[in-house]
Amino acid sequence: MSELFKALQQFKPRPEKIHYVNIEGKQYQVSLKKKLEIMNNGEENYMIKPAKFGPEILLRPTPKRKHLYSVLKPATKGFVFEDSDIHWPNDIKDNGEAWVIEYE
Questions:
Q1: Are residues 36 and 75 in the same domain?
Q2: Which pTM was predicted?
Q3: 7 and 49 in a common domain
Q4: Three-class SS of residue 97?
Q5: Computed from CA positions of residues 32, 38, 42, 48, in that sequence, does the dihedral angle turn out positive or negative?
């Protein structure tokens, strides 16, 4: 029994594994949770922000895309449609409807 206690006293736990990520060409030490998050989103989607207590690893903001789409609006000169069906324009006249490109 005394041998068991001696073995338990000499027992050393494994050191915790150190996790690294490469962001912007440099290697940084992070926690397992942060490494899994970075692996899920991709290292190229992260950036380094300088902070008081060391660099901060942040997810890059997604760029807002400008969409172009056409909308049918009343105009000074525009189309007249057969039975309000936009696929059957009959005539062009004043106070009709026209396709206008809008940006979002």
A1: no
A2: 0.53
A3: yes
A4: strand
A5: negative
Number of domains in the chain: 2
Q: Dihedral sign, CA of 37, 61, 43, 51?
A: negative
Looking at the structure, tell me whether residues 54 and 74 fall in a common domain. Answer: no
Judge whether 56 and 24 are in contact, CB under 8 Å: no
Question: Do 51 and 80 have their domain in common?
Answer: no
The pLDDT tens digits for 23-56 are 999 999 999 999 999 999 999 999 999 988 888 9
- Tell me which residue range forms the domain holding 53: 2-59
In angstroms, the CA 2 to CA 5 distance is: 5
From 16, 51, 57, select the one nearest 38 (Cα to Cα).
57
